[in-house]
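Notebook entry, structure prediction.
Reason for the run: the old model in the group folder had no record of what sequence produced it. Starting over properly, with the input documented here first.
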Amino acid sequence: MKIFHLYILQSYKDGTYYIGHTGDLEKRMQWHNAGYSLSTKAKRPWELVYQERYQTKSEAQKREYELKRKKSRKYIDFIIRGIVQPG
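New structure, fully documented this time:
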């Protein structure tokens, strides 16, 4: 069974976060750090700082949109540190 990931990256360059989802986390990390994604290219390199696993792509996608709607760095910091529980 395929697993899908919600992930949060942090830029080594300026500390900003990027939130995404994928079915192949290792390959997606390589993609971001190689500069193939226009939205993350300028802030390379990226470090994976958080991930959640889901059974379906739609669940991972839903969670990504949920986090992006928050538009709060503080909320993301809390998730990464485990202060706010996933889901």
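Summary: The first strand starts at residue 4 and ends at 11.
The old model has been moved to the deprecated folder.
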